[in-house]
Write a structure and sequence with these properties.
With 302 residues, the protein is an alpha/beta fold. It has 11 helices and 7 strands. The strands form 2 sheets. It has a 5-stranded parallel beta sheet, sandwiched between helices. A two-stranded antiparallel ribbon has the order 4-5. The N and C termini lie far apart (53 Å).
Length: 302
């Protein structure tokens, strides 16, 4: 499935904006997960702006596709994608990790477009499998459930319980996506809990499997098209997206120190300028929000 040049340019812009907004909101909140948010940028751009059937004006539209973020600490990237897609104004992103604002981990009770609350790793696939089975009982054949998982959380046993459940009930309306960025909170996945041979594991649990470069938008769109329209045959499908943790910023790439860390304003400025150069965009540094935001003291280092 070839993308028209203007569509490819749109998806590239969305991936850039997701990364840019993640830097802004995480720096502003002084907390967050940049590495795992960056590695999902192209996946989320391909989902929200090409593959998924959603309507921001009707977040609870019964025919919509659902995205379950199992690695719920990657919420900044999803929040950015939802804002760009029109679920709420981008200004709301600056409420990230504030009381009454966007939660550090996804919370379906307070954010339009969020389909599941998260926190403990490994639970998302169970939620997604339940949704997929529920859609079948509702005789809703067009809707798909996408579950975005981290590679580190595949060491959780409940992931594989859910995998068996989905296979047993032939949930071919369920598409699991593994953000395979090779790094988790304290180091490389292969040092902490080896998960290879990953594709064979999913097949052994009764799933079909596709693999793609998770930063190649055309490859991702093609894989997601095949997963939805070509491959369904009574089995759930796992798409292994090979990605780079911290993709787009040299200091963060494959660096577990950026799993949970907010940059200082000077580092954020450097990150944003590097991203702008990489995407060929006008170089803009870290923004300063208006004084009435109540955080002007933060920018003075007080």
């Amino acid at each position: 499935m070839r993308l028209a040049p203007d569509k490819l340019a749109e998806l590239e812009e969305m991936a850039y904006q997701i990364r840019r907004l993640c830097v802004e909101m995480i720096t502003y909140a002084r907390w967050g997960h940049i590495g795992g948010s960056f590695s999902m940028a192209e996946t989320l751009a391909a989902l929200y702006f090409q593959a998924m059937r959603v309507d921001p004006a009707r977040p609870h539209w019964p025919e919509r596709d659902r995205l379950v973020l199992s690695k719920a600490h990657g919420s900044p990237a999803v929040y950015a994608a939802l804002a760009l897609r029109g679920y709420y104004p981008a200004e709301r992103l600056y409420s990230y990790c504030e009381l009454g604002g966007l939660e550090g981990h996804t919370d379906l009770t307070c954010t339009p477009g969020i389909e599941s609350s998260g926190g403990p790793l490994g639970m998302g696939l169970s939620i997604a499998a339940g949704m997929a089975l529920g859609l079948r009982y509702q005789e809703n054949p067009r809707a798909r459930v996408y579950c975005l998982m981290g590679d580190g959380e595949l060491g959780e046993g409940n992931i594989w319980e859910a995998a068996m459940f989905a296979s047993h009930y032939h949930l071919d309306n369920l598409i699991g996506i593994v953000d395979y960025n090779k790094v988790q909170a304290k180091g490389f996945v292969w040092d902490l809990m080896q998960i290879e041979p990953l594709a064979d594991k999913w097949r052994a649990f009764g799933w079909d499997v596709l693999e793609a470069d998770g930063h190649d938008l055309e490859a991702l769109v093609e894989a997601l098209h095949r997963a939805r329209w070509v491959m369904p045959r009574g089995k759930p499908l796992a798409l292994i997206a090979h990605t780079v943790k911290g993709k787009g910023v040299e200091m963060a790439e494959f660096n577990y120190h950026w799993h949970t860390q907010a940059p200082e304003p000077e580092a954020a400025d450097q990150m944003l300028r590097e991203l702008a150069r990489a995407y060929g965009r006008p170089e803009e540094g870290y923004s300063r929000l208006p004084a009435e935001s109540g955080k002007e003291a933060f920018y003075r280092g007080e």
